[in-house]
Amino acid sequence: MIDEFYIISPTLRRGRYVKESFEDKMASLKGLSEEEMAKRLESMRDVCKSYCGECPSYTGTGESSLVFCAMGKSSIITEEKGCLCPSCPVTDMMSLRWKFYCIRGSGKEQAGLGGGE
Fold it and tell me: Which candidate among 26, 41, 92, 105 keeps its CA 20 to 30 Å from the CA of 5?
């Protein structure tokens, strides 16, 4: 489960709470220490074990990395056989809107914000 510190709360705009976009969430993460970013990534890994590890594109490839949505493409996975990313809690928490991160790249890459970290 993702720790509370990972969840970024909605923004109050014009008197209503609005879910922040992925781009807004990425901007709010700038300036965090390396230690804090490492904690957040570790929290994401814990969740990804249940999703990446069961994904049709991941299974049977020999890949051991996780969190492609944050870290970027796999150097091992090459076929899009199916994707569980849309059902992963990290997708909702980070307002991700893409899939096949293991092949197409991180959320930042797919949003045109730069490479995986």
Answer: 105
pLDDT tens digits, 20-53: 888 888 887 888 899 988 888 888 888 888 888 8
Choice between 80 and 93, residue whose per-residue pLDDT is larger: 80
Task: Report the sign of the C-alpha dihedral through residues 36, 93, 19, 21, in that order.
Answer: positive
HSE, side-chain direction, 13 A CA sphere, residue 43? 17
How far, in Å, CA of 54 to CA of 56, rounded? 7
Query: Could you give the 3-state DSSP secondary structure of residue 107?
Result: helix
SS (H, E, C) 25-54: HHHHHCCCCHHHHHHHHHHHHHHHHHHHHH
H or E element, residue 12: strand 11-13
Element (H, E) at 9: none
